[in-house]
Structures are given as C-alpha cells and as structure tokens.
Design goal:
It contains ten helices and ten strands. With about 270 residues, it is an alpha/beta fold. It folds into two domains: about 170 residues, Rossmann fold; about 80 residues, no CATH class. The strands form two sheets. Strands 6-7-8-3-9-10 form a six-stranded mixed beta sheet, sandwiched between helices. Strands 2-1-4-5 form a four-stranded antiparallel beta sheet. Helix 3 packs across helix 5, helix 3 packs parallel to helix 6 and helix 6 packs parallel to helix 7. It starts with 19 loop residues before the first strand and ends with a helix. The structure holds adenosine-5'-triphosphate. Adenosine-5'-triphosphate binds next to strand 2 and helix 1.
C-alpha cells in the first residue's frame, strides 16, 4: 500500500480544516421527508458518529452526501462545492462509503476483490503493458502486493486472501468491506453500520481498525447502532431523529442530553 496508510502512532491532526461539510441536506421520497436541513462537518483525524432510531434518515444522509439520491442542500469537499458531482467522481476524489450490506464480487477471491478495488489507479499502466507483456507481469505482481498489504492493514489475515468472500467469517467480511471502500486511499470514509451483526472480539477488531485509520488522518463518519462502540471511538456525535438533527456534541454530552435519552438511548433497539 502507498504511504497514506501509516502506523497508528502517526500524529493525529484534529485541529485541521474541515475536509467534508454538509449544509441543510434535505431528502424527500415523494411525500415523505426523510431528512430535513441536516448540517455537519468532519475533519481529518476525526471520527464523527451519526446515531438515531431506525428510519431516522441516517442512510438517506449518506445517499445525499454522495449524490446517490435527489436532495437539496450543499456539500463541500476540501472547500470545493461538490453538491452535483457524480458519486463515482466523488470516490475518485477520496469520498467513499460502505453500505449496511456487504457487497463483494462473489466469484472473485478476497485478494482479487482487493485488486479490483485498487485497479483504477493501475489501469493506465495495464493498458500500456498490453504491448509489453513482461511489464504486465510486474504491474500485476505489484497490484497483488499492494492489495495484500491493504488487506493486512485492515485485519484481513493472509489465510483468507485466496478464499471467496462468502467463505470467510462474517467479522472478516465486515473488515473487508471497509478495506475495499478505502482502496488505495480515501480522505473521507462514510461507514453505514460497520458493526452490524458483530459481537465481542470482532467488534473490538473493527474499533481498532477505525481508530488506526483516524490516526492516519482519515476523516470517518460512522452510522452505528452499537452505542458502546460509537461512544467509545467517536470524537463527536450527531443525533438524527425523524429526519431532523436533534443534538450534536461529544459522546459525553450526547449521553447526558435528555432529548437523546428520550428519543433513542432509553429505548430498547
Ligand atoms: N428509496 C426509498 N424510497 C422511499 N422511502 C425510503 C427510501 N429509502 C428510505 N426511505 C424511508 O426514509 C426514511 C429514512 O430511511 P433511512 O434508511 O434513511 O433511515 P435510517 O436512519 O438509515 O434507518 P435504519 O437505521 O433502519 O437503517 C424511512 O422512513 C424509510 O422507510
């Protein structure tokens, strides 16, 4: 992998400028207002948690940020307005997301999935190498090496690299989803319930990976229902209820907020 994934000891930069800012995002599905005037921002080296009850509008918020659904409001990436930038182009600029469900190429091995995730940066070299077969082998080897490093960084052990994604443990699949979204390097990762279905040590592994990514100056926005996880790793939390922002603050402030307790934390979800 390139230098963008560094050791967890790398200095964090939480006082930097916002890398992603959303303003007044509103999403309508016909007559239903799923999201209303939601605004937040995230900086490099920061984890922003988004919490809220089922159907609150959290996933719609990610869909709006990535311009995958019709909406109003504005999005700024590195200070540039990207409110109308295509989802694919946002990904090229380092704004990427995962979904609640894992999505892999089921017929490709774990390593091949990782190669597919990084191959865009190599496509030009591969095209050139059609005329230079010896070069194609070298480029492929390099892509395999980088893909293996990517997987290792995300805690997907070498023993799984040659297996199909469906044949590896569920906890590993969740880590693989995050790794594939990261690819050769992202600025902002939007993770939609990365811990869904995880427990115990798998959740701890995921938490460790997310904290390591923060240490590499990545900005992370994490939708999560597991309160213990998000309260322990997030720097700030945004709480959404019935499409509207109900509260924002540090995990401690959010946990003390009576509105939040009433709307969410007090319920058995
Ligand atoms: N494509 C769609 N068409 C119509 N309504 C939708 C669509 N997607 C979501 N909704 C509705 O919009 C509201 C917000 O849904 P959304 O998935 O954004 O909430 P959420 O907070 O992510 O929920 P969960 O925690 O259950 O994933 C819900 O009432 C949902 O039924």
């Amino acid at each position: 992998m390139d230098g963008r994934v560094a050791s967890s000891g790398e200095t964090q930069r939480r006082d930097g400028a916002e890398v992603l800012r959303v303003e007044n995002l509103t999403v309508r599905y016909g007559a239903l207002v799923a999201l209303r005037d939601v605004s937040w921002s995230v900086r490099p080296g920061e984890i922003l948690g988004i919490i809220g009850p089922n159907g609150a509008g959290k996933s719609s918020c990610f869909a709006a940020v990535t311009n995958a659904v019709g909406h109003s409001g504005q999005t700024f990436l590195d200070g540039d307005e990207v409110s109308a930038t295509k989802t694919f182009d946002l990904a090229s600029r380092g704004l990427r997301r995962t979904f609640q469900q894992n999505s892999f190429f089921g017929e490709l091995t774990v390593l091949q999935n990782a190669i597919a995730a990084i191959v865009r940066e190599y496509s030009a070299s591969l095209a050139t190498s059609l005329f230079l077969p010896w070069r194609e082998i070298a480029v492929r080897r390099q892509a395999e090496l980088i893909a293996a490093q990517l997987l290792e960084f995300f805690g997907v052990a070498a023993q799984y690299h040659d297996k199909l994604p469906g044949d590896v443990p569920y906890g590993v699949q969740r880590l693989l989803s995050v790794a594939l979204a990261y690819g050769t390097g992202s600025k902002v990762l939007l993770l939609d319930e990365p811990a869904a279905g995880l427990g115990g040590s798998d959740m701890q592994k995921l938490a460790d990976v997310l904290v390591d990514l923060r240490g590499c100056n990545l900005a992370l926005v994490v939708i999560e229902h597991h309160m213990d996880l998000i309260m322990s790793i997030a720097d700030r939390i945004v709480m959404i209820d019935q499409g509207a922002m109900l509260a924002t603050g540090t995990p401690a402030e959010i946990q003390r907020d009576p509105k939040v307790r009433e709307a969410y934390l007090g319920r058995d979800e």
